[in-house]
Design brief:
mainly alpha; 2 strands
């Protein structure tokens, strides 16, 4: 291996690591707020890339129907809860709040999909559609399980992953898709060729991190989310709705997943089941940060990206095995340095 190959592999590894870092940050956010190891995070990535690909072809994306089903289920559950508690007068307002945004997004995507609008508009539609799935998924599936054990929540997450993978096959088919690049320029820097798409990934990731930092530190909802992540019981005692925090964390996770899918779509062919491997690599990075530290998770993601890139050069047939085996010493080290404690201790 000469210096030019090493530079190419490093750039490729860092680019992939940035995407894994976004996924790892989403996993850490969801876990700290809700105690859910959200295995289907990778499915949001695949859904984002494939939804954009369908919009490029002028087709209405399959997740549109999933959004409508989740919205109807959430509205039905909310209506049943209000009727049982004798609060039928609140029913119209509650249903409007639950169904309003999903129906508006679904109608917008339904109208715009056949028009094959500009790429930027299609990206916005994709982000709206996939992001809307997050809070509805929490409301329908996880809200009633807020006090369940971490193991029970993990089992449910695995079930959701399997369901979303199967639905992905129904929505998008078995064929893989690659979306057009946002920017086709290339620059020669010494022995390295830098593509404009790589610059787009870096800039978009940096902008997202800045936005998350401003959101968590400058807004009331962001501060509530941070408080819930630090201590769920304390946040509840201070009047912070942990249900709202859960919905918000899932919305952010879905947005990050959709954005990650949009960013990697031009760089790699995405299939309906590609999300599992992508999400699993993000989970390895999140584990490096002990599912608690955002900087450590981001650093771990860059390490995973570099390990994957150089493994593909030295032993391409075993690159996935090498990446996932790196999780074993991390888990062993965590088990040795982390004292045992009762589950759900607050």
């Amino acid at each position: 291996m000469d210096s030019s190959i090493a530079a190419i592999l490093t750039l490729d590894g860092l680019t992939n690591g940035i995407v894994y870092g976004l996924i790892a940050i989403a996993l850490v956010l969801v876990f700290t707020v809700t105690r859910i190891l959200f295995i289907p995070q990778g499915e949001f990535v695949a859904y984002g890339a494939l939804t954009l690909a369908m919009l490029q072809q002028g087709q209405r994306p399959g997740p549109l129907w999933l959004l409508l089903v989740l919205a109807v289920c959430a509205a039905g559950m909310q209506a049943a809860s209000l009727l049982r508690s004798g609060q039928a007068a609140l029913l119209p307002r509650a249903l409007a709040g639950t169904l309003g945004a999903p129906l508006a997004i679904a109608a917008l995507v339904w109208w715009a999909a056949p028009l094959q609008l500009a790429l930027l508009v299609q990206v916005v539609l994709t982000l709206l559609l996939i992001t809307a799935l997050g809070p509805l998924m929490y409301q329908v599936i996880y809200e009633s399980m807020a006090d369940a054990s971490v193991l029970q929540l993990l089992i449910v997450s695995v079930g959701i992953h399997l369901a979303m993978t199967g639905l992905g096959l129904v929505f998008f088919g078995a064929e893989g898709f690659r979306t057009p690049a946002f920017w086709d320029e290339r620059w020669n820097l010494a022995q390295l060729t830098l593509s404009a798409q790589t610059v787009v990934v870096v800039v978009a990731a940096a902008a997202l991190l800045v936005a998350l930092w401003l959101f968590s530190g400058r807004t009331l909802y962001g501060k509530a989310l941070r408080a819930t992540a630090v201590n769920r019981l304390g946040a509840r005692l201070m009047g912070i709705s942990t249900t709202l925090a859960g919905k918000l964390s899932f919305a952010v996770a879905a947005f990050i997943g959709a954005l990650s899918g949009v960013l990697i779509g031009p760089m790699s062919t995405i299939f309906y089941d590609s999300g599992f491997l992508i999400g699993l690599k993000g989970f390895v990075a999140a584990t490096i940060g002990a599912l608690a530290s955002f900087p450590a998770a981001a650093g771990g993601a860059l390490l995973v990206g570099l390990l994957e890139s150089f493994s593909s050069f030295w032993a391409s047939d075993y690159k996935e095995v090498i990446v996932f085996m790196a999780l074993l010493p991390i888990l062993l080290w965590r088990s040795l340095v982390t004292p045992a404690h009762d589950e759900d201790e607050e």
